[in-house]
Design goal:
mainly alpha, single chain, two-stranded antiparallel ribbon
């Protein structure tokens, strides 16, 4: 998303569907940012103010992922990775609770909707977590170690060499 100081190393390990992992990590943050912003509006409208700080914290962690890409600092990926796993575990507990409530009450459609939305959100979070983890690993292996700078200085371009 941001122009790196030196061109990224292009290898099959550092991309998904032809898109470099750093760019993909930044792009994956956009739907999460929009979703968190809508959640804040939803919590205000339903007067559930308790949940607003969690969404604000999540937006801060999303900004940290973007900053990690911009400033090439892999440790800035860690808050998002940690919060995503904690959030995922909380969602699993929440889904279990809704499945239990589904069996003991008559309000089936409400709980089924919440369960389906939670599962879809969890799948997206896990996919995003994996992308951000791979971007962090790339950043540590290639950018922090200086391989990107050596690659740019050595060839003058960013070519994949056969090993």
């Amino acid at each position: 998303m941001f122009r790196p100081k030196y061109p990224n190393i292009v290898k099959p390990d550092y991309g998904i569907c032809g898109v470099h992992i750093r760019l993909l990590a930044s792009l994956a943050m956009l739907p999460l940012t929009v979703g968190s912003a809508f959640s804040i509006v939803r919590w205000i409208m339903t007067q559930a103010y308790f949940y607003i700080p969690f969404d604000i914290l999540f937006i801060i962690f999303i900004i940290a992922v973007l900053a990690a890409d911009k400033f090439e600092r892999p440790y800035l990926y860690l808050p998002f990775l940690t919060y995503s796993i904690i959030s995922f575990c909380g969602d699993i507990i929440s889904i279990g609770r809704y499945i239990y409530l589904l069996y003991i009450t008559e309000l089936e459609t409400d709980y089924v909707t919440v369960i389906v939305e939670s599962v879809i959100g969890d799948v997206y979070i896990i996919c995003t977590w994996n992308i951000v983890r791979k971007a962090r690993n790339y950043m540590i292996a290639e950018v922090v170690s200086g391989n990107v700078k050596q690659n740019a200085a050595g060839n003058g371009c960013n070519r994949v060499t056969d090993a």
